[in-house]
Amino acid sequence: MTGGEREQTMAQVDTAQTGQGGAALSDTDSGAGYAGIRRVIRIGCRPGPWKRGLVLAALALLLGLVMLLHALVPNGIGNLGSLVETFLPWFGVFIPVLLAGALWRRSASAVAALLLPVTVWLSLFGGLLVDKSHPGGDLTVVSHNVSADNADPAGTARALIASGADVVALEELAQNDARLLVDATELRARQATVTYEKVLGEAYPYHSVQGNVGLWSRLPLSDIRPLDIGGDPAMNKTRALRTTVATDRGPLAVYVAHLGSVRVMPRKGFWTSERNVGAHALAKAIVAEQNSRIVLLGDLNGTMDDRVFAGLISRLRSAQDVAGDGFGFTWPAKFPMVRVDQILTRGVRPVRSWVLPATGSDHLPVAARIGW
């Protein structure tokens, strides 16, 4: 082999080892190259922030639509619509939960979708987060479901007197009717009613008890009568009254009501039949009322978001909505979740609405200051 042939052979070997005259490619370098290519492909195929968390985005939109269109949720199946409306403010609890999930997933679509439920919730309840109370007023009214199981009726009565109320309405009193079957609970309730009459009578010279509701007043009462709002005829219980309170600004029609109980039942769903009958009867009485100035006090066993109260809300204003601070939840007293105890008005101006401290009842008392 000549020298030229040896040089040509060496050049061919060098080319085979290095590629096109470049550096040698080891197995390691080749593997790293393939890994880099795979990494680029994965990054390219990875969903962007608008494609991540689509399930969360769908849940956020569903939440917003349920709150926005709650009136369209049907009552045909277990009164689902009324149940949703009873706890409607609590749907806002799902917003921070969904937001946390959206941030964890880094989902721009889920965050954007949350704008709908946030906007709807604020439009429905944002006004309740602002203190709308004002100074002044002419009359303070209080309403309290004292509970038939109240172990301290005297203490409850003293607490209501200490509130400075001019008019006090009580619900869930015992009805002193010999035709009613008396058990241990009913006997305690009757004894409690005697206690309320005695203790409250020291501060309120005018009062009336009709069935399981009563009214105590510092101002004279007239035209006192029970109000038929339906209920179980077999129980023979009066659950509402109407009277006129004589004020310095003229007569004020005062209604006190305790509508039927509601409960969630396995087969019937959200059972509200007796409550609904009472709500419609009460609305009918308000329509027929001749006095332009009305205050309705009582345990209505429902929130004013519930469609069954549309007849009342179309003619009366909630003192809490007009002059309250917060939701004013009243039940259950240990952890209030809904406002079922109401003060509604017409022809007078609520200037303040608030919830009083707990008593021996499972409901919290509610109070309002009203003016002319």
From TrEMBL:
Keywords: Membrane, Transmembrane, Transmembrane helix. Residues 143-363 form the Endonuclease/exonuclease/phosphatase domain. The keyword Metal-binding does not apply. InterPro entries: Endo/exonu/phosph_ase_sf, Endo/exonuclease/phosphatase. Gene3D superfamilies: Endonuclease/exonuclease/phosphatase. It comes from the Bacteria. The chain crosses the membrane at residues 53-72, 87-104, 111-130. Coiled coil: none annotated. It holds the Pfam family Exo_endo_phos. This is Teicoplanin resistance protein VanJ. It comes from Actinoallomurus spadix.
